């Protein structure tokens, strides 16, 4: 009944990491280029970014840089709809309806809020608490059927389905789809290079813990060389990586960068020491990432062109979102 449609977003909250690239952006490009007829809608979610403080000038710059990153990674703004969230007001309009559908108890269970708010949750913004309802609106204002994301977003996708189901139930309709998360591939959760128990993140205070999409080849090589590992050589089978999170992470990254499975990679590199494997990984990362970062830098020299692409994307996004919001209001009696 629903048109197969992909929606996903990334926050313009600072530099893109290898985690964002492998867990999200590279997958977005695959879904755009797949032959199975998905219409793809990709969004820079600036309204999510400001749930924690963003310097205004930096936010503007990061939004453009993220757009450049999408295009450099292979998103074609003609084939996909590429835009900035705050330019499509239907997101926040639907989010208000969902604020009235979602229950306090559901929101309180969200682990990302607990992680991001930290010890002083009373001082977190109301927006940070309500974030998952806006995310549900981002997705459902397009009636998106599939959402490619990293593993950290799984709980928010479940909440999106809960909100859709409760809306449908309360208003006696089948208006909103129960969206499927698409969490696939070797790199659904890229970990910090300094601590195998933490997610690689733009907000990690240590720059050595992550690879940024804008890092130069020397920085990439240095970060991989210094990445924490254990002293054992690499095993030849996946099961033997279970208790070795740092080794597992580097192998996952290698597999995702080379479009191979972990088993295939281990068949090749099993038995090697990290002193041999790390330079292989660094070469592969540089080979894959440097064309993207140089294209990003080139695009960033034409900010007007980026703004024009985003304005056009927002118009196309509104063509889908406006009628869905109108129908939602009608169902609610407004
Ligand atoms: P961040 O978590 O870096 O602040 P976002 O919240 O904007 O970034 O997430 C954008 C996308 O990138 C989401 O789909 C998220 O699941 C994915 N993502 C972020 N970090 C990682 C990671 N370390 N490994 C895999 N995917 C990730
Ligand atoms: Na995230």
Q: Provide the low-confidence segments as ranges.
A: none
CATH C-level label of the largest domain: Alpha Beta
Shape: globular
Rg computed from alpha carbons, rounded to a whole number of angstroms: 20 Å
For the residues shown, what is the average pLDDT? 96
Class of secondary structure makeup: mainly alpha
Main sheet overview: 3 strands, parallel
Overall tally of structural domains:
2
How many distinct beta strands?
A: 5
The CATH fourth-level homologous superfamily of the largest domain: HUPs
Strand order of the largest sheet: 1-2-3
- Give the helix proportion (percent range): 40-55%
Distance between the termini: 25 Å
Order of H and E elements: EHEHHEHHHHEHEHHHHH
What's the CATH topology name of the largest domain? Rossmann fold
